[in-house]
Amino acid sequence: MAGAVGVLVQTLSISERRKERVRSVLSGRLQSVVVILEAVNRRHNSSAILRTCECFGLHEVHMVSAGFTPSKGAARGSERWLEVVEHEDTAQCVAQLKERGFKIYAADLDDTAHSPDTLPIQGNVAILMGAELTGVSDMARSLVDGFICVPMHGMTESLNVSVASACILSRLAERKRAQVGGGDLSEARIEAFFETWEASEDRSIQAIKARSG
């Protein structure tokens, strides 16, 4: 029995079906909608937002923090399927995205705020989520191009940051996907991400084989 298991382990490889699945998902990804997490300090919330981004087909998340480690329960491994970029401060993050042609909208209860249905989505759009207790920083407010908020009709008028992110991104991703006719991740980025994933999977398989003897 042990010998049979050993033979099976030695023949392990990435199936063509798995490769096709990954390519299919990547082809539906959006690079024109990204998220900025500005000092979302609670690891569970940050991890839940990463999971939301991956589920809705976004490809890129920017974090104004250092040394973030996802919560396994909340993230469910979603960070492996995203390009997560860390920045030292908000100004650096916003400047880099604006150089790439992004319009930045902060999630905030501002009188001028757009809803997820009215936010302009022509071109590249970045949604900046603030800290749990203090919200968007004054620096961010001075740098962004506008604001977005989720319409609310209850007494509380407050949503957890991860819930607010889900409400916003669900609608924006749907609108953008309808606008571009599916995903808009470039072929170059698809290939680069696929090659990185494939190499990682191969290393994992080789490690399993090595442990099996």
Question: Which helices and strands, and how do they pair?
Answer:
Blueprint: H1 2-10, H2 16-27, E1 33-38, H3 43-55, E2 60-64, H4 72-75, E3 83-87, H5 90-99, E4 102-107, E5 124-129, H6 138-143, E6 146-148, H7 161-180, H8 187-212
Parallel strand pairs: 1-2, 1-5, 2-3, 4-5, 4-6
Task: Provide the descriptors you would attach to this structure in a database record.
alpha/beta, disordered N terminus, six-stranded parallel β-sheet, 213 residues, Alpha/beta knot
In brief:
The chain has a single domain, classed as Alpha/beta knot. It is built from 8 helices and 6 strands, in the order ααβαβαβαββαβαα.
Low-pLDDT sequence parts: 1-8
Question: What do we call the CATH homologous superfamily?
Answer: SPOUT methyltransferase, trefoil knot domain
Number of helices: 8
Shape: globular
CATH level-1 class: Alpha Beta
Can you summarize the main beta sheet? Answer: 6 strands, parallel
Residue fraction in strands: 5-15%
CATH topology: Alpha/beta knot
Question: What does this 3D model show about the protein?
Answer:
- By secondary structure, the protein is α/β, with parallel strands linked by helices.
- The protein has a single domain, classed as Alpha/beta knot (3-Layer(aba) Sandwich).
- 47% of the residues lie in helices and 15% in strands.
- The protein has 8 helices and 6 strands, in the order ααβαβαβαββαβαα.
- The protein has helices at residues 2-10, 16-27, 43-55, 72-75, 90-99, 138-143, 161-180, 187-212, and strands at 33-38, 60-64, 83-87, 102-107, 124-129, 146-148.
- It has a 6-stranded parallel sheet, sandwiched between helices.
- Helix 2 packs antiparallel against helix 8 and helix 3 runs parallel beside helix 7.
- The radius of gyration is 20 Å and the shape is globular.
- Mean pLDDT is 86; it is low at 1-8.
